[in-house]
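Quick one, probably user error.
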């Protein structure tokens, strides 16, 4: 009886005792005293046309700084807008000079195009180019308008059809960089041609569409 009472009392005391709660002690973030280097703010796959939101400067450990990195005191960030990613860059990774190619440099178009893609250029007017509010990196649809014979004595029918959707703009005229004024505002200018990225089959359809309307 004594043994049973002792075991019952011991079990009651153990069950009633509060379980200690482990608490984590926050550790202060390590301070990096190295130079400011250019890093990607998000994942940048091959062919990405860079804009002002894709890059930023942040401190980097001095012993890990490479000669190929873009340093803040030697880099004009505006000059890199419109360049194309030649090698994939992960978010937070330093950007190397070999990973980017600028407009006009050898291999720029090859870097801007995805595997198996083609560059197709077609003429536009102020109305069809949305008054110039189309910039490299934007996505557009192509609408074909044409006259179709109705089969009777009346005039031909005017019809419109969206023939291509979600095409990536590579350049307007020969400009592959979004222009900015001294205040940093986007400059809207008219243009006469648009170059887009397309598969070989889409390129064929665009060529036929231009002969129809």
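Nope, works fine. Designed sequence:
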């Amino acid at each position: 009886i004594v043994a049973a009472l002792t075991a019952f009392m011991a079990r009651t005391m153990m069950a009633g005792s509060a379980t200690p709660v482990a608490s984590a002690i926050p550790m202060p973030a390590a301070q990096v005293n190295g130079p400011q280097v250019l890093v990607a703010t998000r994942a940048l796959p091959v062919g990405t046309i860079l804009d002002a939101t894709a890059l930023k400067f942040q401190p980097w450990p001095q012993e890990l700084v490479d000669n190929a990195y873009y340093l803040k005191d030697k880099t004009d960030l505006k000059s890199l807008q419109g360049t194309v990613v030649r090698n994939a860059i992960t978010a937070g990774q330093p950007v190397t000079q070999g990973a980017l190619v600028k407009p006009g440099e050898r291999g720029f178009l090859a870097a801007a195009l995805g595997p198996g893609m083609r560059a197709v250029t077609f003429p536009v007017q102020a109305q069809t180019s949305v008054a110039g509010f189309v910039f490299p990196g934007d996505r557009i649809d192509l609408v074909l308008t044409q006259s179709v014979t109705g089969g009777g004595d009346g005039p031909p029918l005017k019809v419109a059809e969206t023939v291509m959707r979600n095409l990536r703009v590579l350049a307007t005229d020969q400009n592959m960089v979004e222009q900015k004024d001294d205040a940093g505002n986007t400059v809207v200018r008219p243009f006469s041609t648009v170059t887009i990225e397309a598969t070989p089959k889409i390129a064929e359809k665009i060529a036929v569409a231009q002969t129809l309307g």
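The chain has three helices and eight strands.
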